[in-house]
Sequence to fold (257 residues):
Amino acid sequence: MNTSELFSLKGRTALITGGSRGIGRMIAAGFIAQGARVYISARKAAACDATAAELAQGGHCVSLPADVSSVEGAKALAAAYGQHESSLDILVNNAGAAWGAPFDEFPESGWDKVVDLNLKAPFFLTQALAPLLRQAAQQRAAKVINIASIDGISVNPLETYSYAASKSGLIHLTRRMALRLIEDNIVVNAIAPGAFASEMNRDARDHGEEVSARIPARRIGSDEDMAAAAIYLASRAGDYVVGHTLTVDGGVTHARG
Fold:
């Protein structure tokens, strides 16, 4: 058995939503280091362009700004990607939002914004890109990786109702999508991150030492931790893992569960 290429992404294309910062950027950098041609998307065009320019110094990275919270936006991103490539090996549905408010005051706007981006977008963007994923899958397994959260597995004490519901729903949606798309040689899995420093997780970013004290591994996640998990699922190494959610959290889910 030749294991030297198990984790290689050479010759593969990848599209990562929410790729301008945080977890999306960590994954994009990891994919580029493994040889993939990477396209990143984010709602804010300037930030997306700037990140792509920085990452392109280490390999191939192109900015495709888009708002994927609507079906029209998802279709527009798929069309924009299709102007560059005729197939898609790896889709990472990472774009996300959060909203916190007391139960009695939680607004419909906070529900719709989060659920549209965290739960609806992964489904309809995958649907819009299905023809390009199927094209890639004729040569080797294509991959879809949904970025969930440990808040979809165990309960965060913060009152982030729509976030928790959307991430839990995404984990189950991953299973349902996986069973259908494996018929087309498209492998669907998810990652449930714990504490990684980002704009979405400001506690981990700004109070890493305090947060680390509550994690069995005694540290927050690093860029390498997230990149490694995504590379595993995206590469040949993860071909036989179907419908699974890989928890990458230093053990905190077990501790708080």
